[in-house]
């Protein structure tokens, strides 16, 4: 018996191609839509048995917000995530949002169909090799040369890193100056340089970016710095 389903992907051609393949295999496709950001409203309205949602960035914060909303308003709908070979965070984020499974974009149609049937039956639909890869990466983490947190950290001087950590701890200019033994004007200059280098417009944005990218974990605790001399900005 065919499954009532929807296919949503930011790439309309991919969504339509997958929908066509599933129709040929006897499934009833209610819609093939893009972009994925509008998936929640469409799924809530049409109420399929299974919804396939494609994403190219499974580890990006907030990417599975549509899944959260779908499961909150239509808990009977099983959601399958279609994505690239994920890191462990990608798989964990999908399931934490309420997804029933994770299927690679390059999976054969037979594999996609098996995942659909498992999801409709209330089972977790994740290929064993994906779990093996996830556990392997967790046990033997590879170096990430393009890691955003590391890249941002390298942009800052040690002094600026300390300022950022203090900003993230909620310290204002006066507390930063006192804690680092510098003048408030110097502390204010350091803060402005940090904001400029990170490409953000406020201390709150800087703290959020640092937390999201893991920069704070890499920076470690606030060091005890010797007092600076002078009140002007550093070179």
Biggest β-sheet, characterized? 6 strands, parallel
Shape: elongated
CATH superfamily of the largest domain: Response regulator
Strand order of the largest sheet: 2-1-3-4-5-6
Number of strands: 6
Radius of gyration: 23 Å
CATH-scheme architecture of the largest domain:
3-Layer(aba) Sandwich
Give the count of structural domains.
2
Structural class: alpha/beta
H/I helix tally: 12
Order of helices and strands: EHEHEHEHEHEHHHHHHH
At the first level of CATH, what is the class of the largest domain? Alpha Beta
**How confident overall, as mean pLDDT?**
83
Give the assembly state of these chains. Answer: single chain
Could you outline the blueprint of secondary structure elements for this entry?
Elements: E1 4-8, H1 12-24, E2 28-33, H2 39-46, E3 50-54, H3 65-73, E4 78-83, H4 88-97, E5 101-104, H5 109-120, E6 125-126, H6 128-139, H7 148-155, H8 158-168, H9 173-180, H10 184-198, H11 203-213, H12 215-219
Helix pairs in contact: 2-3, 8-10, 8-11, 9-10
Domain Response regulatory: 4-120
Keywords: DNA-binding, Transcription, Transcription regulation
Protein name: Response regulator transcription factor
